[in-house]
Amino acid sequence: MNMGGRAGITGENPTSSVVTQFNHTLWQRYQHLLDKSTPFVLYRWIFLSVIAFLYALRIYMVQGFYITTYGLGIYILQLLIAFLSPQVDPEIHELTDGPTLPTRGSDEFRPFVRRLPEFKFWHSLAKAFCFVFVLTFFSAFDVPVFWPILLFYWLILFISTMKRQIMHMIKYKYVPFTFGKQRFGKKAASAEETITSRP
């Protein structure tokens, strides 16, 4: 029984094994490139801007694929909201004893932790732009539609969503960007020196 099982394992299709190995190697190299690109924030966003410009140029040249562009716009809006939202939503965890966002200047400094980190935000956008760019080479995805209506609807959706997000920021007093650790001013530093110099 065991020998038959071993024979079945050794008798696997060598072509599928080679394809699996190739896919694994390709995925490892891709992941290695992603890991190396992590600290180069500016270059990554420049690269994404080039891809977005090429996609916009492609749409302008073919004068079509407005449905795919609208879908891309909805996806970008969804990613943006996740990028601007805290990992722990204070609205959900308002009554719990868990960690909350600092609301006063005297609170301990805690950097803003996003629901969607910057790298994942960039990576998702880059993949989305590459995907829809490939779709523009297939006429099946070029559904005829009156694009100003789609643009108007997307703008209304964007404005209402961002308004809700900004109201959420104001209500729970957080800013979705961290500019480094807060530093004490001269008054705070002199007060601290006075306290430490006392016997």
TrEMBL record:
Localization per record: Membrane
Predominant subcellular localization, coarse grouping: membrane
GO cellular component, one term: Golgi membrane
Keyword Membrane in record: yes
Transmembrane segments: 41-61, 67-85, 121-139, 145-162
GO biological process, one term: retrograde vesicle-mediated transport, Golgi to endoplasmic reticulum
Pfam family, one: Rer1
Keywords: Membrane, Transmembrane, Transmembrane helix
Membrane topology: Multi-pass membrane protein
Entry's family note: Belongs to the RER1 family.
PANTHER family recorded: PROTEIN RER1, PROTEIN RER1C
Record function comment: Involved in the retrieval of endoplasmic reticulum membrane proteins from the early Golgi compartment.
Name under which the protein is recorded: Protein RER1
Species: Dorcoceras hygrometricum
